[in-house]
Amino acid sequence: MRGIRFCSVVLAAVAAAGVAGCAKQPSSPAADETAFVSVTELDPTIVVDARYFGEHNFIGGRINGYEAPKCLLTKQAAAAVVEVQRELRPMGLGLKTYDCYRPQRAVDQFVSWAKDLGDTKMRAEFYPTVDKANLFRDGYIAEKSGHSRGSTLDLTIVALPPTDQEQYHPGDPLRACTLPTDQRFRDNSLDFGTGYDCFDPLAHTADPAPSGNQRALRELLVTLMDEHGFKNLAEEWWHFTLKDEPFPTTYFDFPIK
Predict the structure, then answer these.
(1) Catalytic positions, please?
(2) What predicted TM-score, i.e. pTM, was given to this entire model?
(3) Where are the beta strands (DSSP E) in the chain?
(4) What's the CA gap between 191 and 14, in Å, rounded?
């Protein structure tokens, strides 16, 4: 019945993309990497675009601890994400993850980068309107991240089957993440109003500036994730944390392999 309830929203929101159609958590496992699983092992139809394994990110290079392009999550979070995927699939849609578990060493690298005010090589795309000196004050960078607890992920929605997306090569011209979808980096995500990791108020989930279709897609993603146990971060439409996360105070640092 939920698919019927969302059908009108989905059809309106994705018409431009040509898309057709319309529990309790288990006991906490041991606090190490054996508590984690790759989401594609549970559902290979989930697309993984591991931005920090490559160079298309706000730093412009592979991030420490990302040794494989995987989405690792605690088993509880991964199982919940699979349920969201099952709800989207009959609508001709699916999930794509950008980042999942993030080693603490990667967070440390983000902090060091943010303190180096001279390194702005990716600013034109990822923070075109924000002074880098304000990244800590504005909450874009912090010394601890929920991603390192293993039950937080960044994700979007794509049409199924997913189309090819533009490939970034170091030195390519950068386009602001706030530009219209046909002018910014050609991600194969549906249009949520900004690119991923866009340090800008336009990326705030409830920002009124995006179009009606863009707001409808944000509402769809937030609603589905909420119904399967996740809460959204108000400043980032793509960012979700499992409400009943198994390791709420543990920040892991094992590499992604």
Answers:
(1) 236
(2) 0.90
(3) 36-38, 47-48, 72-74, 93-99, 152-159, 230-233, 236-242
(4) 8
